[in-house]
From TrEMBL:
Residues 60-226 form the ATP phosphoribosyltransferase catalytic domain. InterPro entries: ATP-PRT_HisG_long, ATP_PRibTrfase_cat, ATP_PRibTrfase_CS, ATP_PRibTrfase_HisG, HisG_C, N-reg_PII-like_a/b, N-reg_PII/ATP_PRibTrfase_C. This is ATP phosphoribosyltransferase. GO terms for molecular function: ATP binding; ATP phosphoribosyltransferase activity; magnesium ion binding. One of its GO terms (biological process) is L-histidine biosynthetic process. It comes from Diversispora eburnea. Its EC number is 2.4.2.17.
Length: 305
């Protein structure tokens, strides 16, 4: 341990979620960006071999605080965690990473629960997001509690639990809960449904306002951007008769312009263009309809676009 700590000075410190939903995808981003490291068993610090960077494995919840106030320069966490930490002003959100997408929702029992969020004012709400939920219900209290209730000191009670929040209504701890929803399976299984959404979130790359090595931050950011772009796009290749080229270009305009190369047969050209992965099937259908042949789709490992 001490040998690693002695090597930390002069290294950019980069915080990575040590477990949970963001862990695996954060590691695969580091791999795509070619940051090579070996993490010793149980050790939360790993030196990057090919850059003056040290990775620090921390709970996603704590990462905004470290980036805002500690010596950590860069970090991966969720937008929800940044909002909950209240550190928004002290850090820069550099990049949305496109994974860890979820919504923070107010949920109530399907049977016998409130039908609208305002029916929860003055009641008990269970959550792990104390600060966001406190602020949210403070506003609802101001709006929906009667003057008599306010004078009697009635307030919505926010109760903190650290996980398995969806169990709280069944176990009698709350009248409603606030927790993250992605597929909605956990919520549904617990017999809950949403009555409002507080925020939408995804994983982000965050940076201290005064990072120790700005040029290295920029380099890592563009590498990560490249990995994310590569996941969004595929390269399409096809042959088309010149007479249909104009229509073809409309279907695959590329990010700047498609690359067009002549074929031996002068009536035909080959077209190469970047297309968005989520539109690829529709694009192939349209190309086929205008007579494109030999349509090939290539995955991209990495790119700078
Ligand atoms: N179901 C989900 N779908 C997508 N993203 C999620 C989901 N749950 C959490 N996240 C995102 O991941 C972040 C970390 O949450 P997660 O629950 O994975 O961490 P953890 O609480 O440290 O781990 P664990 O729950 O395994 O103890 C959240 O702040 C949120 O941004
Ligand atoms: O909408 P879904 O796809 O079902 O995902 C939502 C669930 O995922 C997270 O829980 P996690 O697995 O991290 O467990 P935890 O409650 O113990 O933190 C979140 O707290 C929800 O419970
Ligand atoms: Mg969790």
């Amino acid at each position: 341990m001490t040998d690693i700590i002695n090597k930390l000075s002069d290294r950019l410190l980069f915080a990575i979620p040590k477990k949970g939903r963001l862990h695996e995808q954060s590691l695969s981003l580091l791999k795509g960006a070619d940051l090579n490291f070996h993490r010793r068993n149980r050790l939360d610090i790993a030196l990057v071999q090919n850059f003056p960077i040290a990775l620090v494995f921390l709970p996603a919840t704590d990462i905004p605080k470290y980036v805002a106030e500690g010596n950590i320069d860069l970090g991966i966490t969720g937008q929800d965690e940044v909002a909950e930490s209240g550190a928004n002003d002290k850090i820069d959100e550099i990049l949305e990473l496109g994974f860890g997408k979820c919504e923070l929702q107010v949920q109530v029992p399907v049977v016998g629960g409130a039908t609208k969020v305002e029916e929860l004012v003055g009641k008990r709400i269970v959550t792990s997001f104390r600060s966001l939920v406190g602020k949210y219900f403070d506003e609802l209290d101001k709006k929906y509690l009667t003057e008599e209730q306010k004078q009697a000191g009635v307030k919505t009670k926010i109760k903190y639990v650290s996980g398995s929040v969806e169990a709280a209504c069944t176990l009698g701890l709350g009248d409603g809960i606030v927790d993250l929803v992605e597929s909605g399976k956990t919520m549904k299984t617990a017999g809950l449904h949403p009555v409002s959404t507080i925020i939408s979130s995804q994983a982000i790359l965050i940076c201290n306002k005064n990072p120790s090595n700005l040029s290295l931050v920029s380099k890592i950011t563009s590498r990560i951007k490249g990995v994310i772009a590569a996941q969004k796009y595929v390269l399409v290749n096809y042959n088309i008769q010149r007479i249909h080229l104009e229509e073809a270009i409309k279907i695959t305009p590329g990010r700047r312009a498609p690359a067009i190369s002549p074929l031996e047969d002068n009536n035909w050209v080959e077209v190469q263009s970047l297309v968005s992965k989520c539109e690829v099937a529709e694009i192939m259908d349209k190309l086929e309809e205008i007579g494109a042949k030999d349509i090939l789709i290539h995955e991209i490992d990495n790119c700078r676009v």
